[in-house]
Amino acid sequence: MALWIFVSVFAAFMQNLRFMLQKHLKATKLSTGGATFSRFLFSSPLVALAVWGYLSWSGAAFPALSGTFWAYALTGGIAQILATACVVALFAERNFAVGIVFKKTEVVLTALVGLVVLGEGVSSLGVVAIVVGFAGVMLLSDPPQGGARFLNKATGFGLSSGLLFAVSAVGYRGAAMQIDSVDVIVRAGVTLAMVTAYQTIIMAAWLAWRDTGEIGRVVASWRVSSLVGVTSMCGSFGWFIAFALQNAAYVKAVGQVELVFTFLASYFIFKERSTPKEIAGIALIVISILVLVAAL
Question: I need a labelling partner for 179 at 20 to 30 A (CA). Which of 63, 110, 186, 246 fits?
């Protein structure tokens, strides 16, 4: 089995842990911005240290970074900040499992964005998966107490996060492809280090301007926030290595295994229960995932 499949599964597992921790932070202590910032504040120095250590150990030179690299990296990084904020905000609207499934529209959207930006298409089975997945999203978009199907905050946050995560995935793959190195760790690690560094700066500046005191609350919650940083670093390394090796749409398709981890966490940890309609919608999305994997 290819390396990118293993690291995609690992990244999905670590990402699920991170979202669980961020849900806890959002529910108990921090604002949406603070819970989002926690992943960057503690992961950025860890990533920089890991990349420096690898370059020193391997003897590899720090690669040249072109303007095209920065265009992809900056676009991907800003999209990821906004996408993470949407997911954290979504947790206040729907339960943990349904929130993550809304986010998983990214697998379809990544295929579309990848085709437009990088010219990387998917097979005809991918079209089938898109139709099935859309049907699942239609069911999941119904609010629990009725009301407008698409005109509700949960749907808006969920679909926005999916689109933004798709843009970030394609941006990161595009950035990694611009680095002239045969070492996938160098390509993935340097891209990740550059992205997390400026994401930390951007988020710190935003919170200092718009949410006075939140940075201090993030630091004060270091016991949980630092775990967010560690799981973020581990998950991001997995995603970036996979993006450096394979079409971003396929990476995201395999990454849908996160749904298994998500529902286990939702049931056993958060004690949340999904409605029959939500379960049906989730089932359709899982089917679309299996079709996408079959298209590999």
Answer: 110
Cα(196)–Cα(193) distance, rounded to whole angstroms? Answer: 5
Pair 225, 42: CB distance under 8 Å: yes
At position 153, the amino acid (one-letter code) is K
Q: What is the pLDDT of residues 75-86, one digit of tens each?
A: 999 998 898 788
Q: pLDDT tens digits for 76-128? A: 999 988 987 887 777 666 565 666 666 767 777 888 888 888 888 777 777 78
Q: Is the dihedral of CA 28, 9, 186, 105 positive or negative?
A: negative
Question: What burial class does residue 268 get, using C-beta atoms within 10 Å of its C-beta: 0-12 exposed, 13-18 middle, 19+ buried?
Answer: exposed
Rg (CA), the chain: 18
Give the residue carrying structure tokens 């932070």.
Answer: 25
Instruction: Assess contact for 199 and 83: CB atoms under 8 A.
Output: no
Neighbouring CB atoms inside 10 A of 212's CB total 9
CA gap 204, 207 in Å, rounded: 5
Nearest to 101 by CA among 135, 127, 72: 135
Please give the full DSSP string across 101-150, using - where no structure is assigned. HHHTTHHHHHHHHHHHHH-----HHHHHHHHHHHHHHHHHTS-TT---SS
| SS3 state at 189 | helix
Please determine, for residue 24, whether its predicted confidence score (pLDDT) is greater than 80.
no
6's CB contacts (< 8 A; 6+ apart) are: none
Is 104:259 a contact under the CB 8 Å cutoff?
A: yes
With beta carbons less than 8 A apart as the criterion, state whether 173 and 244 touch: yes
CA-to-CA distance for 225 and 120, rounded, in angstroms? 36
Angle at 127 between CA 100 and CA 239, to 5 degrees: 45
Distance, CA of 253 to CA of 287 (rounded, Å): 11
